[in-house]
Amino acid sequence: MKSIKTFAAVIALSVVSFGSFAQTVTATGATIDSAEAKIAAQAQQTGSSYRIIEANSNNGVHMTAQLIK
Fold this sequence. Notes:
single chain, elongated
C-alpha cells in the first residue's frame, strides 16, 4: 500500500514539473516567416527555445508553439 502512495506521488510531481517548464504561445502573421519571427521573439523574451506544434494558413498564418526551458 505504501508503494502505491509513493508511485502516485511521483506521478503527480512529474506532471506538475512538466507543466511548469512548457508553455504554449500563438502568433499570427501574413507569412510563415513573420509568424515564426513573433514566436522566436516570445521565446527569446523568456529565455526559452521553441518547437512549432501547429501552423495554419487561411488568409494569413496562425502558428502555435511550445516554449521549452
